[in-house]
Structures are given as structure tokens and as C-alpha cells.
Amino acid sequence: MITSFDFAHPWALLLLPLAILPLLRRRRDTLPFSYAPWLPKDPLGQIAGWLWRILAAVAIFTTVIALAGLGKPQTQVARVGRGAEILVLMDRSRSMDDHMLPSDWRKIDRSLLIHHLARGQPKAKVARDLLAKFVAERPDDRFALMFFSTKPLSVVSFTQHDAVVQAGIAAADIGRGLANTEVGRALLAAIAEFDRRAYSGSRIILLVSDGGAYLDEATKQKVLAGLARNRIALYWIYLRSYNAPTLDNSEPDRTNAPEMALHRFFQSLRTPYRAYQAEVPEDLQKAVADVGRQQNFPLDFLEEVPRQDYSRRFLAAAAICCLLLLLGRSLALRSWT
What we know:
Elements: E1 6-7, H1 43-68, E2 70-72, E3 75-83, E4 85-91, H2 110-116, H3 123-136, E5 142-148, E6 152-159, H4 162-171, H5 183-195, E7 203-209, H6 217-230, E8 233-239, H7 258-267, E9 273-278, H8 281-294, E10 297-305, E11 308-309, H9 311-336
Parallel strand pairs: 4-5, 4-7, 7-8, 8-9
Antiparallel strand pairs: 1-2, 2-11, 3-10, 5-6
């Protein structure tokens, strides 16, 4: 396979003819002798002379190539790993700044529970910490990150570079979210991220939210069609707040809650759907770990390989040639003296 190369500064190649100069005979190289056959044979001297010229030509040639910036252009390399293409769709509404229930909340008297809620960590912080760990433990996955409240905000497009995703997750700690949670618009935006990508293996949208929504029929049909078209599984990590309905609640006054309505719609999807209800940090940790176990299938993807610059190698070769020329020159001066 022929590997293509490019030059960062191709104009410098105009200096390449200078490399021929050491190979040309100069006037001072000609010595007057009355009869040339009387001169003794000096094969070592001839070899040294040609070696001197070749080293000088190579030094000029490699210096010019280094100045031109020879390198291998940015390419895409096919890789095979195990994992999935995961789009993390994270709720950044104001309610995500509320505290999660403490681990021992069931043992606390209900009349005193409200005073103990502040002991828990904010839901958004717990989610960020666990998602950061989740990304770090899955080097073969392709991650994308999107926040939403009133409108969806794409933070990181699909990439395998963990540092970029980690920086995006950390950015969720800046500012406060808005009051509304537009899950429908966020899901449609998340699905659209897969529309422009060739299918290469397992795909999921990981929805991390503490609220539900009533979706109109048009939005439901678009979500159903988009998930089926792109073969996307949906995982919902539901960060339940105190007094919020549980997803398995059958009480008549709770069945019409936004969270229950959204859960029922997700259950009607034609693609895989799993729901995880997290009340305390330990629940969220188990949910994230289970997602990691579920999504570990062969994955084909294209990795962006940045441009490789070979200038330093040519500069090193030029430096070695110059060093050998200086060494030869010093030996010649010693022999003359």
C-alpha cells in the first residue's frame, strides 16, 4: 500500500537544487601538474572526497525537506474493539441541583427526613462523577455528550478521545439550569446525531434525568421512527427525588405523573429499552455499572489519526551529516599539520 505524504511548507522545495552544489567540481579542486600519470594512485583519497561531497549534499537535502515540513496527512484508520456508540443525554434542569437522598433515608423518621436531605450530594454532581468514571473505564467506546433543559445543547460529538469527553462532563458544573425539562426535543436532537453516521455496532442513548414529560403524538412518532431507523437502544437512569413517583407505582393518583407517562411511552418502543431508578448514590452506581455490562459487543469504527510531522527526523539526519563533515575536516587539518 502506497502511503501518501504532504508538505506543510512546499515553497521550501525550491531550495532543493542547492543540494547539487557539493557534487560540482570547483576551480580550486584543480591542481597544476606537468604530467598527471606521474601522480600516485590514491583510492582512499578519492573515496574520502566523494564521501565528503555526498555528506554535504545529503545535509542540504535533508535540511530543505525539514524546512518543507514533510509529513503524513491526517487519516482515518479502521479499528475493531468491544463496546458501543453511546450518546450521554444529561438533564441540566434546575432540579438536578437538588440533593439525592442519603443512603440511610429509609431509617430516618419521615418528620425529620426533610432536615437530612442536605446531607446528600447534588444529583448532578453524583451523575457527573459516575459518568466520568464510566467513560474512563470504557476506552473502546465512542462517546458523545449532550445537555438539555429547555433546549438541547450538543457539547461533544462522537469521539474516542476520553479527555474531550471528560472535559465536557466537567463543564456541566458551570452555572445553573433552567426550570423546564424538554425531554422530547432532547431525544430528537440525540437521535439526529446518529443520522449522519454509518452503523458500526451497538448504539445507545443514555438518558440521565430526574423528571418526565408529556410528549405529544407527533413527537412520539418521530422518536419511535428515529430510534428504529438508527437501531438505537434507550437507557433511562431516573434520578428519583423525594416524593416523586416510582416507575413501578400503580397508585391511581400517580399513574398520570409525567415520569410514569414517559416510562409507559418508552416501554412501547420497537427498540430495546431499560429503566434504572436511582434514589441514592449507590443505586446510580449500580445502574451505570449495569449499563457497562450490557453494552460490550464488537464495534467497528474509524479513528482519526492526526498528521504526523517528520521534520525532526530529517533535521537529525542533517545534524549527523554536519557532524561527520566537521569530524572529517578536523582529521584532515591534523594530517596536514
